[in-house]
Amino acid sequence: MKRFRSLSFSAKLIIVYICSLFFAICANTYNQIHAAANVLEEESSRNLRLLTEQVALNFRENQESMGYSIYSRMAALEIPLLMDAYTQEHSSAALTDVRYALTQMITESSDYDYILLEMSDGTRLTTAGRTVRNQADVQTNCDTILDEHRSVTYGNSNWYRGTDGGVYILRDVYATSPLRRVGKVVIHMKGDIFSVSNVYENTGFLFFDVHGDYLSGAGMAIPEDVRQSIEEDMADGVLAEKKNWTKLDYYTASSSSGNWITVGINSTAAYRDMVNRIARNGVLFGCMGLLAGVAVLTVLMQGLVTKLLELKKAMTRVADGDFSQHINVSGNDDISLLAETMNHMTSKIQELLEQLVEKERLKNEAEIQMLEYKYRSLETQIRPHFIYNALETINSMAKIRGNDDIVEIVQRISRYFRSITVNTTRQFITCQQEFDMLRDYTEIYRFIHGDKLKTTFSAKEAARNALIPTMILQPVVENALQHGIRGQEEDSEIIVHAYVKENRLNITVKDTGYGLSPQMEQKLQSGRIEASRRGGIGVGNVRQRLQLIYGDDATFTISNRDKGGVAVRIVIPLTYIEPEILGGDDLDWDLE
Prior knowledge:
By secondary structure, this protein is an alpha+beta fold. Among the domains are: about 75-190, Beta-Lactamase, CATH 3.30.450; about 425-590, Histidine kinase-like ATPase, C-terminal domain (Heat Shock Protein 90), CATH 3.30.565.10. About 55% of the residues lie in helices and about 20% in strands. The chain contains 14 helices and 18 strands. A 6-stranded mixed sheet has the order 16-17-15-14-12-18. Helix 2 (about 10-75) runs antiparallel to helix 7, helix 7 (about 270-320) packs across helix 8 and helix 9 runs antiparallel to helix 10. The longest helix is centred in the first third of the chain and has 68 residues, at about 10-75.
C-alpha cells in the first residue's frame, strides 16, 4: 500500500482502471451468461409449445385432407359403383372392371404405392403389379390390419403403423345409390408424408393416436431410446416439459388435436453452445477493450498533467485579482471543459462587477426620481384644505341650483386630488386604486373638452388587489387622450384591462385614435423617447421606471392596432398587499 501511494497520479489511474475494468468484465460476462441461459430456456419452452400446437393442427389437416383425397380419387374412378355392381352380379367382367379401376388409383404423384381392396363377399384385390419396395412385407401388413380391424369405420380413415414401420390407412367403401357399404380398403403410404415445413433447427415431432400408439415422426431425428421413453411417459401420464435422456437435456411439449397427440422435442445442445459462445466472446472482447483502454489512457495522461498545471497557474492569477486572465482552450476533454468554465467564471465575475456599478447608478437615479415624486406630492399638498373647501363650496352651490353635471364633476375633481395627495406618498398602490384615479381623470377630461369619449375599465378578480407602481398608467392614458383621440369627430374609446396569466400581472391600454406613424412606433418600441413634450412624465419615463423597479422581469410594448389606434401592454411580476389596507370598494368595477 505504501508503494502504491508513492506512485504518480497517472500510474494510480491506470492501475485503478485496469482493476475496475477487469472486475466489470467478469461481472458483466457472468450476468450475460446467466441472463442468456434463462432467456433461452424460457423462449425455447414457449416457442416449442407454440410450434407443437401449430404442427398438431397441420398434421390433423393433412390427415383429413389425405383421407378425403383418397376417397375422392376412388369416387372419380367409380370404384364404389363397380364394387356395388360386382356385389349384385358376381361376374368376372365386373371383377375385372374393379381391378382395372384399382390399378388406375396409383400414379407417379400419388402419396401411396399399394392398395388392398376387400369386397363384401370377402374377395380381395391388390395392386401387386406395381413396383413397391418390400412388397411382401407391405402385403402382409395390409392383410394383418384388415384381419385385426373388422369393425365398421363409418367413412372415417383409421391410421396404423405396420411392423415394417410403414403407415397404413384403413377405411370402409360405400356406394351412394343406394347408400350401403360394399367393402374395405387398406392403403400403404409411401415415404414420410408428415414432413413439417419450416421446422426450427434441432426440433422434432412424434405423432400418437388416442391410445398412445406411435404413428409417425417428423423434423429432427429422435433417438430410439428417447422415443421409447416418451411413449412410456405418455402411458404413465407424466410427460414433463424438461427431461434428461441419453445424458442430454430435452424440452418436450404435447398438443392434442382430434384423435391425435403431437409431441414436440427440442434439444438443449444448441442453446448450451450459444451460451458458451457468449461467454467466450465476452471474455475476448473484454480483454481487447482492456488493452485498448490502457493504451489510450496512457496517451491521454501525457497531456492531462500539462493542462492541469496550466489551469493551476491561471487560477492563481485570478485569485490575485486579475479577472482578465484567459486560458486557451483546445479539445473537448474534461480539463478543456474545466478551463472553459474557468474562463466563463472570470468573465462573469467581471460582468457582475460592471452590473453592480450600473445598479448603484440606477439606484441613485431611482432615489432622485422618488424625491421628485415627493416634491410633486408636496406641491399638490400646498394649502390642500383651501382647495377642498373651495371645491366643496362650488359643489354646494351647484346642488342648490340643481346643476347635477357640476356636482358630479366637482366631486370627481375633489376625489382625484385627494387620491393624488394620498397615493403619491407611496411607491406602490393597488391596481384598483390606480383604475379609480384614471376613471376620475378621464371623466374630468371628457367634461372639460366635451369629447364623445367612452372609457372602459375591467379587471379579473385576481388582478384587482395586485400591486403596481404609483401612477404608472397615468402617463399612458394621458398620452392616449392628448395625442391619440383628441380632436376626433367620431366617438372615441379607451379600454383598460388587467388580468393574471402565468403568475404575472398583465395590463393593456387600447384606444381607437389615429395611431402612430411608423417612425414614431419604432422610436417608442426602442425606448429612444424619454419624456413627453409638455414636461410631464411620458411613455419613456414609464419604461424607465419599470426597468428601475423590476429590471428584466418587466416588459413594456407599444404598437398600432389592426383596427386603428394604439395598444400598450405592461407585464410585471404579480404581488399583493395585506387585505386590511385595501380600499376603494365604494366604486363600481366591471369584473369578469
